[in-house]
Structure formats: structure tokens, C-alpha cells
Amino acid sequence: MSTLILAEHNNTLLKESTNKVVTAANLIGDPIDILVVGNNCMSVATQAAKITNISKVLVVEEDYYENMLVEPISDLIINLMKNYKTLISPATTTGKNILPRVAAMLDVSQISEIIAVIDRDTYERPIYAGNAIATIRTTTEKNVITVRTTAFDAATNENNAEIETIAATNDSSLSEFIEEKISGSERPELTSAKIIISGGRGMQSGDNFSMLDKIADKLGAAVGASRAAVDAGFVPNEYQVGQTGKVVAPDLYIAVGISGAIQHLAGMKDSKVIVAINKDEEAPIFEVADYGLVADLFDAIPELEDELNNIK
Amino acid sequence: MKVLVPVKRVVDYNVKIRVDSQSQSIDLTNVKMSMNPFDEIAVEEAIRLKESGQAEEIIALSIGPSQCQETIRNALAMGMDRGIHIETEHSPEPLIVAKLINEIVKKEEAEIIILGKQAIDDDCSQTGQMLSALMKCSLATFASNIEFENDSVMVTREVDGGLQTIKLQKPTVITTDLRLNEPRYASLPNIMKAKRKIIDHFLPADLNVDMTPKLNIIKIVEPPKRQGGGKVKTIAELVEKLKNEAGVI
Fold first, then answer.
1. B218–A139: do the CB atoms touch at under 8 Å?
2. What is the pTM assigned to this prediction?
3. Cα–Cα distance between A258 and A249 in angstroms, integer?
4. How far apart (Å, rounded) are the C-alpha atoms in residues A136 and A171?
5. Number of residue pairs across A and B with CB atoms under 8 Å?
6. pLDDT tens across A262-307, in order?
7. Out of A100, A183, A287, closest to residue B130 by CB
8. How distant, in Å, are the alpha carbons of A41, A179, B153 from that of A67?
9. Using one digit for the tens of pLDDT, what is the confidence trace for A218-277?
């Protein structure tokens, strides 16, 4: 039996998260096919066919697949699943939307956001926002899995796999796409950024976040915030990093004026390198920081900006 | 229009959980429990629908041990009309939860089901999506805005990198994201009033749902400890170390 990967893309570009899922799927060990579902998305199929060690790309194009609406795509996948043992996708908003619906249609439970593959039926996944790691074994014939992509390296692109066009299933017309507003910001998304700079209550106001914006622009970083900063109204909720916000694991996380409440730590402590800048040397954030600087952020951040200017 | 809101009793988001290394499970002894924060947002949304005259009846449902009645009382104190408790020994896995909810949906003929996008204990983010499959109806996950029209619902969803707006046929399942609303606190008079509201009680057997789990938890362990506590004295030293020692800038 084989593994089917639901590709993450925007009809033009294949997202790197798909390569990371291939790495996880390689650990499962079965032959891998990639499903590219969308509209006018043949270029995505061509990119997917290059991923090392995959057997085949299945591509299906219809206007009702263009915006990744969950109902028609679930119907499509369920038809394909008679040929596969495992369905797997990145734990993006697309994967998280579609896969559990497919799992329930198959009458199986899903294993969400795996961080390690033990064997074909056994996986590790974080629970309690990463404060514990559970080892889960499935007992069903088919498995449905989403992958926390920060836990796997991207598979290389050294292949030229076959691309097969497959038939669409009917549109259930249960929902209809109206519009999409993809944030115009040049900055990366919080969940995929390599560097994040976050502000806490110590920022004192929303206006002061412009200091972090400047550093973010220099580093190509995303800007985040603690729940305290969001609750104080400094920045909108979409900035929130933490157990009830976004869980992130960038290469570098810079926490500015953040004390380090449990629920914030839960959302960022898997970052590779953590920097904390806080004037309270007792702040819990320092316990997880690789590089802690006890300083007033209103002195330190402008100085950091100058210093970064010098090295670039 | 009848609205059903499933609510889960979870470890309070401010509690640092402890992993018991002997039993390889989470130690829940004397731990403060609360309503899952995303479910509070779902409750708030249902109450607003009732207040604006769009919902006729709003019902809170919880599945789990007898203490779940406290969670239901909390939802009733916020403003839900009545409660349903399906008593189980433990909190079942999402597929089983979705099946139990689906039976209540059928009994109550609920048209709109609003759930939290995930529970902050198992972090699965599955139940709403699975329920929509069982109901064979439309689905909108991660909602940050909901507007009702005659026979349809407009939902704005928080997707990676932006917002997507979709129009759904009723009945529908909606899961809540953080920006949807800010849940209210229950007032003292409403807490008193909630004590007189009705909570119906069911067992899984009453609903003919097979409770056999499909997933087994082999063990739960602590994540590898993070070695923190390193300090730098100046910004110049920080930048030098990030560049040359850590190699991240």
C-alpha cells in the first residue's frame, strides 16, 4: 500500500511544506504519490514531480478546486483512498481543514501534527502546546496524518516523476468562495518565518511596535506579540504567539519586553535560538533564552537597529 | 434557528501541566480545570446570535466525566439557554466526540453548530471538521467573522497569510478562531439564574455510539528540556554571537 500526500500550493507555486511532508512520508516507508488539486495548477504538478523519491504526481484541475474548499476536495480524496494506506499533509490551515473531514468519512481517527515517525502506525505528537509529547498508535487499516513541518527537513528536488491527470468528482456546492485577502505585507507569515521578533506588555503601546517593525524589515523577520500585548490592545490578535495563539518554531526568536508567561513559552520554546531582552532579570523568559540581555528595551532596540546596520 | 455549542472541560490555560514519569501520563490531580478558551468564544458567538434575534434557542453540550456539568453551568451562566451532558469516564477521541455530537444534532435538529477550533489539551483540531463529515454538511474552520443571511452564512476564515471569505449552505459547522469575539464574564445574577437552567443527561449507550478508541496512547513524556539561562552584557555582544556563534543572522 502507498502513501498519498496532499500538496500545499497556491495554484502557481508548490509550498516548501510539501517537501517537508515528503521527508516524513519517507520515514513511513511506503511508495509516495502526491496529489495536486487546484485550478490551472499544472506548473505546481511539474514542481512536485521533481521531489526526490516520489513515485507519481496526480493532478486534477477544476474551477471549484481553485480555492481549496473543503467539501469538494474531501469528496475527491475519499475516492482515491481505496488505493492508499496513508493520507498525509502539512498541518497548514488547508491540511487542518480538509484531513479530519476525510478521516471521519473513512471512519478513522486522525493523528494531528506529528513531529516524529516511529513506525507505519506509531507517531509522536505534541500535546498541551508542546509541554508534553504523546506517542500514539493507530489501530485502523488506513491512517490520516498531518505534519508539524518545523519538525522535518525539506526533501530535495532531484527527480522527474510521472504526472497523471485524474478525473474530478462532482462539486457538492455546499459552500462557495467569495474572496481572499492575503496580507500585503512583505514580511513572512508567523508560522513559516525563519526569524520572529515579538513584543510584550513592556512595549507600553502599539505605536512602539514600529521599533520592532524596523528590526523585522532588516532581518526579514515576522512580528509577533504576547497575549499580554494583545490583551492590552497594542496589536491585533493575529500577532499572538502562545498556547491560544500561534505555535511557532523559527530559527531565531527575539522576545522583547515579554516576561515569559507559561502560555507564551508554550508557543515559542521550540525555536532553535531564543533571545530575550527584558529589564527584569527575574523574568521567566530568561530561563529558556540562549542569549538573555537585561536592559531597558527602549535603549536596547534602537541600539540593535544600529548594530544590524553595521553588519549588513 | 437552533444553535448547538459543544464545550470541553480542559486544564486551565494558565496551569503548567506536569508529566508523571511513573505512569507516563499527565498528572491531573488537583489541577484547575476550565472551559476550553476557543469554546468560550463559540459560546459568546451563540449568545450574540440569540441577543440579535437570529437564534431561537442556544444549547451547550459537554462530553466527559460528571465534572463537565460545571463547564456546562459556566456556559449557562454566560447566557446559553440549556445544557446537555453526555457522561463518559474519560474524554473520548475526536472521532467519537463527533459521533456523539452528531446524535445530539439529529435529536435536537440543530442547524448551526459552533465549536472551538481546537482544545488546548490534546491540540487535535479535528472535532468540528469530523462532525461536518458525519452531518454531510458545509464547514468553516478558524472563523474570525460570521454573518447570517437568509439560507446561508458568510464566514471569514483565518488562513495562513490572510483571510478567506466563504458562503455556506445551512446546516453548517463553524469552528472559532481567536479574533471572532471577546467572551463575556458571567455576572453574579446570571450565575444564580444558571443554577435553575436544565441540563439533560445521556450515556453513550443511549445514543448507540461505539466508544472503542481507534488510537492508543502508548506513553506521554516530557519534551527535551531546553538549556536556557545564557546571558550577554551588550547589544554588540548579542549581535556578534547571533552572527558568529549561532549563525542565525
1. no
2. 0.93
3. 17
4. 35
5. 254
6. 889 989 988 999 999 999 999 999 999 999 999 999 999 999 999 9
7. A100
8. 12, 9, 18
9. 999 999 999 999 989 999 888 999 877 888 989 999 999 999 998 899 899 889 999 999
Rounded CA-CA distance B133/B80 in Å is 26
Residues 6+ apart with CB under 8 A from A51: A18, A19, A22, A34, A155, A156, A157, A159, A161
- From residue A144, give the alpha-carbon distance in Å to each of A86, B99, B127: 6, 18, 14
* Pick among A68, A128, A253 to test the B interface (most B CBs inside 10 A): A128
A63: left (phi over 0), alpha (psi -120 to 50) or beta: alpha
Nearest to A287 by CA among A306, A305, A260: A260
DSSP codes of every residue in A11-24:
SS-B-HHHHHHHHH
Q: Can you tell me the ipTM of this complex?
A: 0.95
| Furthest C-alpha separation in chain A | 62
How far is the C-alpha of A197 from the C-alpha of A306, rounded, in Å? 16
Structural contact between residues A150 and A114, judged by C-beta atoms closer than 8 angstroms:
no
Alpha carbons within 13 A on the beta-carbon side of B43:
29
Contact A104 B98 (CB under 8 A): yes
Q: Which residues of B205-230 are buried (b: 16+ CB within 10 A; e: fewer)?
A: eebebeeeebbeeeebeebeeeebeb
Residue A284 has which C-alpha cell? 521567566
Yes or no, beta carbons of B249 and A219 under 8 Å apart: yes
Q: For residue B206, give the nearest of B113, B85, B58, B75 by alpha carbon.
A: B85
Using alpha carbons only, how large is chain A's radius of gyration in Å? 21
